Amino acid sequence: MAEIQLKSLAHSYSRHPEGPGDYAIRQMSHTWHKGGAYALLGPSGCGKTTMLNIISGLLAPSEGDVMFDNVRVNELSPKDRNIAQVFQFPVVYDSMTVFDNLAFPLKNAGIPKARIEAKVEEIAAILELEPVLRKKAKGLTADEKQKVSMGRGLVRDDVSAILFDEPLTVIDPQLKWKLRRKLKQIHEQFNITMVYVTHDQLEASTFADKIAVMYDGQIVQFGTPRELFERPNHTFVGFFIGSPGMNLIDVSVTEQGVRFDDIDVPLDDGQKQRIAATGSSNIKLGIRPEFVQLTAAPADDTWPCRILDVEDLGTYKIVTLQLGEQRLKARIDEDQMISGDTLHVGFPRQWLKVYVDEFLVDEQTEEAQS
Amino acid sequence: MRKVPNNRAWWLVLPVFILVAFSALIPLMTVVNYSVQDIFGPNAAYFVGTDWFREVLRNESLQASLGRQVVFSAAVLLIEIPLGIGIALLMPTGGKRASLCLILLAIPLLIPWNVVGTIWQIFGRGDIGLFGRFLNEIGINYNYTADPVDAWFTVLLMDVWHWTPLVALLCYSGLRAIPQAFYQAAEIDRASRWAVFRYIQLPRLKSVLVIAVLLRFMDSFMIYTEPFVLTGGGPGSSTTFLSQTLTTMAVGQFDIGRAAAFSLVYFLIVLLVSWLFFTAITYPDRDK
Amino acid sequence: MTHSKRRGFGITFYILLLLLPIYWLLNMSFKTNQEILSSLTLWPQNFTFHNYAVIFTDPSWYDGYINSMIYVSINVVITLLVSLPAAYAFSRYKFVGDKHLFFWLLSNRMAPPAVFLLPFFQLYSSIGLFDTHIAVALAHCLFNVPLAVWILEGFISGVPREYDEMAYIDGYSFPRFFIKIFIPMIRSGIGVSAFFAFMFSWVELLLARTLTSVDAQPIGAIMTRTVGASGIDWGVLAAAGVLTIIPGLLVVWFVRNHVATGFALGRV
Question: What is the pTM of this model?
Fold first, then answer.
């Protein structure tokens, strides 16, 4: 087990990168602590797999260092880093039996036979592979193959970390849930550092204690699922986490704060100063649909808006609203009734976030937050 | 692949059927017809039943030629298959250099077989050939026209030169079809280079190796032109293989009945051994 | 990366060895017979085109090349024309005797050409095709058609059936679908089949020589003329040999991009 530290890491697949567009991973630093269960969440093509391959050593980063327990391992092969990785699509050694597949990484490390057998049986039991243990891997179903693939990562309990690259993509939903639980269980049992790459927020939050959200070659936020939900650090986190994503409204700066249409939102002095300091005009307000307040009657700090659509999703409803030029989504309880075609909308101040150049500008200072 | 029962598909295979029947069935019938008759002239033929077959099977010069043929084909397979795999593993995995390698490797395959014989006839000569001259200069007494061992060595070397590229090209395309993820997984699993070869590359080369082994067996077992040009089957009959024996018998001595019986036995041996190879290589695939 | 350097060295070394005999032939083709016989020189001291001039000025020489090209081309065309529909049928349909037919076809690839020498000679003589290009082309179909059917069947089976059905739904007639949609999809399969048909027809001599005498005589048979009363004309023999390598080089140049995928014959 190890603490994995990425120091000013950057990677480009082109040999002579010109400009940030050529980078799959833009310069960043990050630490994965010992024994944690982490998820790396982001859309396709954001650099998740690249980062995973850099950590495991399949790929050498173009810039920066990879440190395992404060030792630079850039030049070490996956073998010497002693790391396990499970790939998106099942990789099984066709000509071997399931048992031999699971035993393969252990045999290669020269572990005594008795211990291999015990370890393989243990993992096969957890993954429910016992019935097929003596079968050739070639004839397995896709589910079983992926379980074998995962098993090869899990049999090694001496590893620095286990990396999962969207391991459940080819598995059907029911089993997916079960396997996710299994992984969590294994993590609790062996306390191995695990990094789990996925583009599914649900998968990330059920597996991980802390989630790193990756966007455009950078980790834009690293936090618990709750932090990501309540205090998205970046508009992308707001948009990507939650369903539907955060409402984002373009605003302009005024004396008291910011303004869109004819609605003024006051900001505190610290925020105003920092917005002014950036000199940027790319300013957005964000509020999650869950926190948008809807009332039938007007009140202080509410604005009338038109109802465009109501989607009933069984346990809750999504209301689409037209407020001036803006289109907003609000999520309300199943039993809250909506009538007529006009409602009054309010934005609780504590849930209204300000973003400058896509990054959060909070009320408190940033030091106090983290 | 899901196939639809449709007997009208026969119309699509009819041209092939007619063509191959014309080129194979009629001549084969002729051969069968000859093999059971003794022919003295245009209108003088007698039915002799299986006499020719019995004689062919007992004929010592044919047995000797069959023996040489078996040794030759075995040597060809034992050398060319491993060597071809090795070369495929050495080849660049992509880009311009890979293309260049492929083109250069393919050259020997596209040279007419008599020219292959000519090339080695010249190359191996002690006076005007680079190879023969070189061996003699460094003190090895080498003369493929006089010494049976040298002749064998040269014929074998020629075949290795000529056909190993085919095995290499087949294996190369087999290797390219292995997804990168397998190599990555093996690296993660701490597999040694040998283990990567044994458990990833070799199993996935199986289907191309079946093709390579079958093609190399068939063509080496039918070899005629190259050794005929190179050594003429000599010295003595040391490099006379089955096809040459047969051709001499049929065209040279016009010994048609015996040649026909011999032809059929020859054909059956190729079929039988090909079937054995095919079954032996693909057998372990069937899950017990 | 010392490992990849070693690999590069290994493959370079092998290819050099592979090219050495060919270089020697090329070297000799630019020498005079006197130079060839008098001393061993690593490159031509008196560089001459004389040997090539002999071939290009004598119709009985260059006709041999033309004859070979003609029957090889006819063979490739026939092979592809009959094999494509048959391979399609074997890949897509079940019909009476399909398996037996397929194995019977393949078994012909295993027939030693020497077996068919005499019957072929008689067959083609009796129907008046002896010493014609078409006779050699048809005889070569014996081993090229089975191989082509087998290769193409592999490639066609790699194309999902849904494409065929989609085309029917879109109102394509079968021939139009086959030519417009299907053939472009199995391009590399066709390229590889043509390559193999060319290769085995171009290099074969035993049947080609037996079925011809003058009008359709292949270059391989003409090359034996270099053996004269005064010994072998090495220079001209070498030049003739070099010229037989060039068509193959051109063909492999055209299919070079399909070689890596195509040589797996659609069966990996």
Answer: 0.83
